[in-house]
Design goal:
Elements (H helix, E strand, L loop, with lengths): L1 E3 L8 E2 L11 E3 L7 H8 L2 H10 L7 H5 L9 H22 L23 H33 L21 H4 L6 H25 L19 H6 L15 H4 L12 E3 L10 H12 L5 H10 L9 H11 L1 H8 L6 E5 L7 E5 L7 H30 L7 H30 L8 H6 L9 H5 L1
Antiparallel strand pairs: 1-2, 1-3, 4-6, 5-6
């Protein structure tokens, strides 16, 4: 059983899983097997919270402090059985809640795509998921309060303590009272949870675009290095051989050739305008069609966009495009604690060209592919667009051109200049044919591309 050595809030303990180790900041208690759940429940009780405030009113909880706790093993058998059952139930709820996060070891898929909650449309799906979250939060509260009641009775502290546990102390990610805290109203908490749930769905969709995840199979699908065996995993899933994927799943059992296919090269543009048919916005629209249905697409797009703080007069697709091109990577950095797995290549200030590249699919030919498939064609698209704008402006002479037309032309000129400089830099690094050693870590590898990548200082320090 482990706990955090440093903490300003209430003391809490967690069960270690097999293969975990303790350290200086996450110490461990190794009880006898028969005491495991009982001691875990005790350490999370109000008895311990009160005792530690008396024994050690500081921010650091040492091993000796826990060794000094008034631990009673001789709780009556009937009460002991109830405590253990409650602890096991609480552990199961916590595990399932943890696995809904993309950063957990056993993340299966976005909870909005779980068969227990998925409806024909996105909003009813979210409503059903939200109802389940409320139910498990209340059940966790009941389990904790019941154990508190038993321990308080056992220690004769009825006059000192009450078993009640406020919702803000029910440590489940799906519980907005704990996740966001503060003095927010119910409406504010629900709005925050909706926004984060939709952003997590978008992140999962990007993972499916990259081939990290798949709508056809749960869990992590691809996390090798250098795009190795990617084609084999995704396009030869019905082969007779039993080679394994990233989760040691036989390839023939994956059959990952469904309606939503991963990107061919692991390069996904995130542009502010619709320059490429395979950019993140267009692929997300395709994702919604497959995950739910084409018939409910418009309604689902609106539900997603409404949660992303749309601007006045903005169409749902425009809102989603704006989020993907301006805020998705910022959220990704937060989720992965400044160690991103989708890397943002950016031309610079005017965002003439930006794309995401999946770390595990990057290989020595990725930058050359980026030039030939995206940057070079974009030069031509910019030129054609500028020529069109010039014709429109000339057609209005001698009257002054509408301000928007001239503004768009001026911006495109700046973007074209930025794209040319980026292309020169990209060619230089493409010629270097850089390879990555994943053992070096994201921080080191991210710094190998000069200023081709966004947020370099944030990631590398």
């Amino acid at each position: 059983i482990t706990w955090s050595k440093i903490g300003s809030g209430n003391f809490s303990a967690r069960f270690f899983s097999h293969g975990s180790i303790s350290s200086d900041t996450s110490n461990g208690v190794f009880p006898h097997e028969s005491d495991y759940e009982l001691l875990g429940a005790y350490l999370n009780s109000k008895i311990v919270a009160l005792s530690l405030k008396i024994l050690n009113p500081t921010l650091n909880v040492q091993v000796g402090n826990l060794n000094s706790l008034p631990w009673k093993r001789d709780i009556q058998a009937e009460y002991k059985s109830n405590i253990i059952d409650n602890a096991l139930s609480a552990k199961e709820i916590s595990e399932k809640d943890w696995y809904t996060l993309e950063t957990s070891w056993n993340f299966p898929c976005s909870p909005l795509l779980h068969s227990d909650y998925r409806e024909s449309r996105l909003k009813p799906t979210f409503d059903k998921l939200r109802a389940h979250c409320r139910e498990v939060t209340m059940e966790m509260q009941r389990l904790e309060e019941e154990n508190n009641h038993i321990f308080i009775e056992s220690y004769g502290l009825q006059d000192e303590l009450v078993p009640d546990v406020p919702l803000s102390e029910i440590t489940l990610t799906c519980n907005p009272h704990y996740r966001y805290g503060g003095n927010k109203s119910e409406e504010e908490l629900e709005a925050l949870l909706l926004v984060d749930t939709i952003k997590e769905l978008i992140s999962y969709a990007v993972g499916c675009m990259m081939g990290r995840y798949s709508l056809d199979h749960s869990g992590l699908i691809y996390a090798h290095s250098g795009n190795k065996d990617f084609e084999e995993i995704y396009h030869r899933g019905d082969a007779e051989d039993a080679k394994s994927g990233a989760n040691n799943i036989p390839l023939r059992s994956l059959r990952l050739c469904g309606e939503f296919k991963p990107d061919d090269d692991g390069i996904v543009p995130v542009m502010d305008l619709d320059w490429f048919s395979d950019d993140a916005t267009n692929r997300f629209i395709e994702f919604l069609k497959v995950a739910w249905s084409p018939q409910t697409l418009e309604e689902n797009l609106k539900f997603v966009a409404d949660s992303l703080n749309p601007k006045r007069g903005e169409q749902p697709v425009e809102t989603i495009r704006r989020y993907l091109s301006t805020n998705f990577f910022k959220d990704h950095l937060k989720t992965y604690k400044k160690r991103p797995i989708y890397w943002l290549f950016s031309s610079g200030k005017y965002k003439a060209f930006e794309c995401l590249v999946y770390l595990h699919r990057y290989n020595e030919s990725t930058l050359s592919r980026m030039r030939s498939a995206y940057v070079t064609p974009l030069h031509g698209k910019f030129n054609a667009r500028m020529e069109y704008l010039r014709r429109e402006i000339n057609a209005l002479l001698p009257a002054p051109a509408p301000r928007k037309l001239q503004k768009d032309l001026d911006l495109l000129k700046k973007k074209q200049a930025e794209l040319s400089a980026f292309d020169d830099n990209l060619r230089h690094y493409a010629d270097m044919r850089i390879t990555l050693d994943l053992d070096d870590g994201v921080k080191v590898n991210y710094g190998k591309f000069g200023n081709l990548l966004a947020e370099v200082k944030t990631v590398t320090g």
